[in-house]
């Protein structure tokens, strides 16, 4: 079983239970199949640290509303 680490809590969990995301050209997206990606576990979808962590990964401020939209509804 492939495990991946959640960027927020750093727990290792089965890949299929996680949300795969990416930052492409400073834009926060669901993983599109190409490029670097990162994982988020279900428990951390509502984390208060999420925007800070995404900011660090994307090297850009992404609003929490935008983050929630991507996480909940996709692109
Ligand atoms: Zn997590």
Primary descriptors:
single chain; 75 residues; alpha+beta; 3-stranded antiparallel β-sheet; two-stranded antiparallel ribbon; 2 helices; 5 strands; globular; binds zinc ion
CA-CA gap between termini: 28 Å
Low confidence ranges: none
Strand order of the largest sheet: 4-3-5
Name the hetero compounds present. zinc ion
Walk me through this protein's architecture.
The protein has one domain (3-73). It has helices spanning 50-58, 64-73; strands at 3-5, 12-14, 19-24, 27-30, 38-40. It is globular. It is an alpha+beta fold and 75 residues long. The strands form 2 sheets. A 3-stranded antiparallel beta sheet has the order 4-3-5, with helices on one face. Strand 1 and strand 2 form a beta hairpin. The protein is 25% helix and 25% strand. Zinc ion (ZN) is lined by residues 6, 8-9, 11, 41, 43-44.
Could you write a compact summary of the structure shown?
Helices cover 25% and strands 25% of the residues. By secondary structure, the chain is an alpha+beta fold.
Topology:
Elements: E1 3-5, E2 12-14, E3 19-24, E4 27-30, E5 38-40, H1 50-58, H2 64-73
Antiparallel strand pairs: 1-2, 3-4, 3-5
């Amino acid at each position: 079983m492939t495990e991946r680490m959640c960027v927020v809590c750093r727990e290792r969990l089965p890949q299929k239970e996680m949300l795969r995301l990416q930052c492409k050209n400073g834009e926060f997206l669901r993983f599109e199949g190409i490029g670097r990606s990162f994982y988020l576990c279900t428990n951390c979808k509502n984390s208060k640290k999420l925007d800070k962590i995404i900011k660090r990964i994307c090297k850009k401020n992404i609003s929490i509303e935008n983050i929630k939209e991507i996480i909940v509804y996709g692109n």
